[in-house]
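chain below, 292 aa
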Amino acid sequence: MSQTPVLASSRAELATLLADARPGPVGMVPTMGALHDGHASLLRTARDRIGDGPLVTSIFVNPLQFGAGEDLDRYPRTLDDDLDLCAREGVDIVFAPSVDEVYPGGPPQVTVHPGPVAEILEGKTRPGHFRGVLTVVAKLFGLVRPDVAVFGQKDYQQLVLIRRMALDLNMGVEIVGAETVREEDGLALSSRNRYLDPEQRVAATVLNRALRAAQENASYGVDVALDEARAELRTEHEVNLDYLVVTDPDLGELPEEVPPGTEARILVAARVGTTRLIDNLPLVLGRNDGER
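prediction:
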């Protein structure tokens, strides 16, 4: 389906468009713009969930989730191209507000406290990041009132936290996690990939190879899976590892004795040059004795 989405830049315009929208469940895909095929996949997933209901995407580079020294100013803004992609994917409403429209009067005094899961992994490296993410997502949910909201699994910690927020705060929205879309060489699609030079772009593919190595050896236990992933990562000297961990699907600690068939998640973050990339994959663990 191809159509021209209606652009709303204010909360009042958004409210009017939603009031006039055709009946049916409302789907939403929140984004920061610089849309790519991964976002297109999220939009298609949302459309599949809502049928002919109105589909809304937001495009907003949220300053509240950027820390000191991060790439807020250089984060790509490509609204015209983003609107073209939304048209191809049948989006009905694009909400692209200014910072003042989302945060009238400056940074909000009341924010969403994300809890202990926000203090590990990305949260440990980027203090305050998930407070900013959950606050803006909560605001967007309040404005759009979606029935279904779709997020990518690449930002897995974000997905876990948004699910928890929606559950704990009774938001009445179904949170759907869509599979990560990848290039042919396995690199997860990301707006930050454009910062990589050609050599770094090739080196970055080691992240997916490391995760695949862990996935293929997960039946031998956590230790073997991690050893295989680390061995793969050591083949690329341009990649500086931040973390590589295996957790349960909700990012909690696994038990000391892991029963065969236990579902888990392996997550990695690393810098390639000055660009920080993240990725993850599901695991099904076997015995935890490290024997082959």
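The CA atoms of residues 195 and 247 lie 29 Å apart. The first strand starts at residue 6 and ends at 8.
thats it, cya
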